[in-house]
C-alpha cells in the first residue's frame, strides 16, 4: 500500500483534564501517514483520484476547532475515525503531540494505527 503523509500540522483545540486547561485553546502537533493507492492519480495526473492533502487538512482544522476533549487519546481516536470514514482511508497512523506539558520533556502524546477490518 502506498502512503501519503502530512507532518507537523499544528492545530488549536480545547484539550486537557485540568481546570486551567479547560479555559484555553492549546496547540497540538499532528503527524499523519495515510494508506492510499496513488496509482490512479499518478496515471491520469488527476487530483480527483488523489487523496487531497488540502481537503484532509481543512477537515482536521474543522475537527480541532469543534473538539472539546479531556484526553489526547480521545482526540486521536475520534479524528482517526472521522478521516477514515469521510475520506474512505483504509489505513492510517496518527501521532498527536502535545508540547509543553511536562517541563522535563519536549512533548508528550500518543500514536495510533488503525485499519478497516
The assembly state of the depicted protein chains is single chain
Q: Beta-strand percentage?
A: 35-45%
Biggest β-sheet: count, sense, barrel?
A: 5 strands, mixed
CATH hierarchy: architecture: 2-Layer Sandwich
| CATH fold assignment | GTP Cyclohydrolase I, domain 2
Distance between the termini: 15 Å
Structural class: alpha+beta
Radius of gyration: 15 Å
Strand order of the main beta sheet, please? Answer: 3-1-2-4-5
Task: Please render the helix and strand layout as text.
Blueprint: E1 3-15, E2 26-35, H1 39-44, H2 53-66, E3 68-69, H3 72-87, E4 91-99, E5 107-115
Parallel strand pairs: 1-3
Antiparallel strand pairs: 1-2, 2-4, 4-5
Helix pairs in contact: 2-3
How would you characterize the overall build of this protein?
By secondary structure, this protein is α+β, with helices and mostly antiparallel strands. The protein has a single domain (3-115), classed as GTP Cyclohydrolase I, domain 2, CATH 3.30.1130. Helices cover 31% and strands 37% of the residues. It is built from 3 helices and 5 strands, in the order ββααβαββ. It has helices at residues 39-44, 53-66, 72-87, and strands at 3-15, 26-35, 68-69, 91-99, 107-115. A 5-stranded mixed beta sheet has the order 3-1-2-4-5. It is elongated, with a radius of gyration of 15 Å.
Amino acid at each position: 500500500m502506498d502512503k501519503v503523509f502530512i507532518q507537523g500540522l499544528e492545530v488549536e483545540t480545547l484539550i486537557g483534564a485540568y481546570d486551567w486547561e479547560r479555559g484555553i485553546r492549546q496547540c497540538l502537533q499532528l503527524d499523519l501517514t495515510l494508506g492510499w493507492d496513488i496509482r490512479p492519480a499518478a496515471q491520469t495526473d488527476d487530483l480527483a483520484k488523489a487523496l487531497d492533502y488540502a481537503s484532509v487538512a481543512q477537515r482536521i482544522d474543522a475537527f480541532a476547532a469543534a473538539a472539546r476533549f479531556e484526553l489526547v487519546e480521545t482526540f486521536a481516536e475520534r479524528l482517526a475515525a472521522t478521516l477514515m470514514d469521510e475520506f474512505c482511508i483504509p489505513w492510517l497512523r496518527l501521532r498527536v503531540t502535545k508540547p509543553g506539558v511536562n517541563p522535563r520533556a519536549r512533548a508528550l502524546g500518543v500514536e495510533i494505527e488503525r485499519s478497516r477490518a
